[in-house]
Amino acid sequence: MMDRNKQHPPVITDSHSDQMLRSPHGIQGRRHRVGQQRGKLLLMLFFLSAPFGGALQAQVYDGRACEEGNSTIKTLIKTGKVEGMTLHMGITGDADRWATSFLKAEGKPPESMPDYDYELDRDMDIHDWTCMFAAFRAFDQNQETAWSEGVKGPGVGEVLVVPLKSSKEPIRIRPGFALSDALFKANNRPRRIKVYALNSTGRDTTQVGLLFWDWTVLTSKEFELKDSNAWQTIQLPAHSPAKESVNFIAIEILSVYKGSKYDDTLISEVMN
Ligand SMILES: [Ca+2]
Q1: How many domains does the chain contain in total?
Q2: pTM flag (> 0.90)
Q3: What local confidence, expressed as pLDDT, does residue 34 receive?
């Protein structure tokens, strides 16, 4: 367990954070499987401010540890409809519930993760550690962090849910582990994917985030991605969500380009 009374590092200024980004963090465990992610692991302000326009106010949170994926998403894309399945988006939100699985950190957590979220909260280390490859890493507006499926094998059939700004604009996707070309090649990249436009009719705003529930599939389409460490653009058929302000897609992995070292499939960023 983390020592919640530990001495906190000094406030990281911009110049210091740049230095820390270039330094080893002593993070062990499964990090080595996908290489060292540099420190911009948790920019929850970005998470909150986009794509929702910064409607939520930052408060002091402990951060919830990521524990398990959300298998109900598979029911949704299979049957086209799921009642309930409340997903929470916010600082203590369901960072691990927006995908059917995620790669869990293994080994001993570090004494302290870099507090890039310092101004928000001084003690989200357990969140930072356990959520290292959780779903929201694919929509944190940082292409150096990534969601990784967490099942045995390449993760065919695993699904990631992503919020988008628009149902009409093309979708930009950065497949694989974009942090470096070496890591991109070492790990699996999605090849064929099936993308589902989702609708959530149940919505609420709370002090600690946004809630979404009652889901349907509006349309879907398969795509073949290029094996390139670069942004790619896909476009779904026209569809009409109940509310244009926040939209969702689900991305199902159908096949992969095999990694040279690891059998984990990653997606670094999805947005529009
Ligand atoms: Ca990311």
Answers
A1: 1
A2: no
A3: 45
